[in-house]
Amino acid sequence: MNVSTPFRTSADAIASILDGTPEPLIVKDRSLRFLFLNAAACALIGRPREALTGRSDRDLWPEEVAGRLAAMDKAVLATGEGREHEERLTTSDRICRTLRLKKRRITVAGPEGADQPLLVETIVDVSDFRRREEDLRASAERYRAIADQAPVMIWVADETGDTSFFSRLWLETTGQKEEEALGFGWVDVIHPDDREVVKKAFFHANTTRKPVRAEYRLRRADGSWAWILDVGRPRFAADGSFLGYIGCALDISERRAAETARRETQAFIKSIFDSSVDCVRVLDLDGRPLMMNKAGRDLFGISADAGVQSHTWSSIGNPADAPRVEAALQAVRQGRSARFEITVRDVHEKERCMDVVVAPIPNAEGVPYRTLSIWRDISDAKHASEEAELARRQAETAADRLSAVLDSTMDSVMFIDRDWHVRYLNENARRLLRLDEKALGAALWRLFPRERKGLLARSCRRVMQEHRPASFEDYLPSLDIWLEVNASPTQDGISVFFRDITERRRAEEDRLLAQKQIAHMARHDMLTGLPNRLFFRECFDQALEKALGSAKIAVLCLDLDGFKLVNDTFGHPAGDALLRQVSTRLGRVVAETDTAARLGGDEFAVIRRLVTDGEAPSTLAQRIIDALSEPYAIDTASLVVGASVGIAVAPDDGTTADELIKAADVALYSAKAAGRGTYRQFEPEMGAQLQAHQQMKLALRRALDRRELELYYQPLVSLRSKKVSGCEALVRWRNPERGMVAPENFIPIAEETGLIVPIGEWVLKEACREAAAWPASVSIAVNLSPIQFRDKKLVKAVAAAIAASGIDPARLQLEITESVLLDESDHNLELLQELRNLGVKIAMDDFGTGYSSLGYLRSFPFDKIKVDRAFIRDLPSGKESLAILKAVAGLGHSLGITTTVEGVETEGQLETVNAEGFDEAQGYLFAQPLPASEITILIAAGLI
């Protein structure tokens, strides 16, 4: 850029302005020495300006860094192309920061009038941004690590049903690689017989958005098959849109195998014990009876509910047989089987000769601790000795088989008599219950007093009393274990088969907790923790159902005033922090019986039940507005936003959730139209106002086709020649029903509806067509809305207007406001450069009213800056406004930018502006906006 004055002209004014810029700025000469550093740059380096002027990067930074900076500076000076890169540098506060350096070349007039290239370098601290990026990456890795450590296989699917994530356990179990499993690749490892059923279940759930549950066989990495229980829940966004599914799969192979084994074991034991035609008795080592099967009870006339402890050898046998009995018991104690014959009295007091086989029942160490005896009636036996021998062998085999079964079964087994004494424990039971031989014969509830009133005790008593089996699961606090229990009645008490299911129950509890967390996430806002739109709607429907006819329900819809500006100025992290603080304050204001929710963005809602007729929801609305309008501390900044509230009451304003929410939204629209920071309760006429607004939208859509739009032109006057140097095109709407509609009444509607794009194209074409007939020295200025920059055809529209009118592109000036640079600045800067390439001029309108207008002058080389009328109103007496005007005029001259002042209405204002050296002025002192026919006459007259 060529500048007509040397770099040091107005140096103090420029330095004063640039020192106020928060971003560090450095100007270097062609030798890469510092000519100027603003205050922010000096603070960053930690040295005063006098000590840095004339030095270079080699005096400040390590040789490697300085060499890299110098090479890039030379490339920018040589090519004229700006560059940008990041460096890790230790600043004056001894903190290593990530700095983004933006470099561009400018050209100024040297002392002898020769062009002198300079390099301007701006510095932006992006340390926090990079740190947040790293935190996000770490967060993603942390969440994946959590999923990979879960005891279940976790998966996630998108809205199309494609699986987008599998935890490590799935991949290890199946042997699949992640890329093989994603999408629908997981179906390949499902058993062919189960595949279609599973696919239909998942596809149906994905279509209906309902939870899915399936059991199927999954091929393990070693080729074996595992039974899997797979449960999935749908996921929804804050706005209610469907996101897909999250689910978990659990290996239940062991549980299914255990259930099968337990059933087979119980059936086998029952088959041997109860169906035997022989009398089978289980005794302790001293011969005291513990259990007896049905054949034995029938033989001795013992009822099913009577105990067998009293039926000892001596009570039913001949005393003469006592030595043989004692010898047999002694053999059992020594671990040997024995066979003998005795005489007993049956139920009819008839003597019977019994062939008895006894065998030891050993414990886990192989030591006998119970006696199994099988009795066969041989009183009437006439069979040959071979048949008798066969019978004895069968009896011995049956005894050995039952003894082996009891100790080899996977279950723990315990027999309890009717007095609740423990009469039998197999090895698994002793190990699991942590008991030894002393427990045999002891009272069960003396061994486990903490379980005396628990589910185990209640269930076992019911089995004993009702003679019906029971299956249940219970937690034993004394052992800190979960048991799966099957208790069955016997003639002498109950038999209890049980196994340890602690790991399975805890896995199920973990899964249920995860499902509860997922369900909570689906119904609550992730950012604030408040109920989301889905949960709010459910609460609303429930409240209406309970309250209609007995009480009134108020719904308050609110949103924040100025929230978008916070996001655009301070970034989305600041906006998120603000929303969290808003939700906290909202929770303090509403009552515990109220429901507060975040509906999305900066929209919130509250449901309140009005207990008394005199209770006014407006009181709550005002408390909300007051609470949310207090300043917020976000990082080091203090932010202030407002709130607007719309109120609707059931049943006065509606009887359904849809009717009430719509009424509250209409009231909210009315509150915002009234100036924001207030509340409005719904009134029927508000609907009419909203309808009128909608009708205005429809009328505006037809305005272009009906040629109701007109262009007025307000001149810009050169303060040097006193001639019209250009005209600003201003659109007007002459509506047949409403008359002349002011721009402030329809331009916002045009931007809201997107009509500003076709209207803007029409203004460009019409303004260029009119201006083509003016003198070549008179330019035409057209305002562009930020909405037009979102249209991909903007550059083509400008080019088409120039081509159709034949006007010199240099005569067309496009005026933008700083909101264009606030919104998608990188994209809009590219569009501005494309417009500049057409040959048109670019002007910044309303200069000085934004947050960082000076920063925008560094972002893009504007041709003109127009000072907002707010700085002109109090001239010539306003000292602050005068100081700002002086600074802007000096900045414009230094950078070679045309300076224009808007809103000049008095001679005193004109004299002040002229004295400060501004190039142009515009205002009612010269002329109001005029139709095209009148502005042509004014230009021809040559003087305002």
Automatic annotation (TrEMBL):
CDD domains (alphabetical): EAL, GGDEF, PAS
Domain GGDEF residue range list: 551-684
Ranges of residues in domain PAS: 10-80, 139-215, 265-336
Annotated ranges, domain EAL: 693-943
Leader sequence residues: none
SUPFAM superfamilies linked to this entry: EAL domain-like (SSF141868), Nucleotide cyclase (SSF55073), PYP-like sensor domain (PAS domain) (SSF55785)
UniProt domain PAC: residue ranges: 212-264
Gene3D superfamilies associated with the record: 3.30.70.270, EAL domain, PAS domain
InterPro entries tied to this protein: Biofilm_reg_signaling (IPR052155), EAL_dom (IPR001633), EAL_sf (IPR035919), GGDEF_dom (IPR000160), Nucleotide_cyclase (IPR029787), PAC (IPR001610), PAS (IPR000014), PAS-assoc_C (IPR000700)
Protein's UniProt name: Diguanylate cyclase
Organism lineage string: Bacteria, Pseudomonadati, Pseudomonadota, Alphaproteobacteria, Hyphomicrobiales
